[in-house]
Amino acid sequence: MGIIYKSEQLNLPEEIARRLKGKEIELVETKEGILIKLAEDSIKTARGCLKGLGLTLEAYMKQKIEEKNLER
User: Fold this and answer.
1) Residue 32 above 90 pLDDT?
2) What's the pLDDT score for residue 4?
3) From CA 26, how far away is CA 20, in angstroms rounded?
4) Fewer CB atoms inside 10 Å of the end CB: C or N, the chain?
5) Domain that holds residue 8
6) Hey, CA dihedral for 67, 70, 71, 72, is it positive or negative?
7) Claim: this prediction has a pTM higher than 0.70
């Protein structure tokens, strides 16, 4: 994993700076040089990963209560 910067922290060519404005970018060292890429948002990446599994808040809470009862 590289270092995360706000795009405004770097002196980038105008066209690139305009496209990246307000975004977080990551500088990653590779064999070829330095790669500039958008930083991944782990929350957005994980969002929806449980969709379609039938897991509801009620089912989750019931499971947690059952786990707590087993600990006693």
Assistant:
1) yes
2) 80
3) 12
4) C
5) 3-71
6) positive
7) no
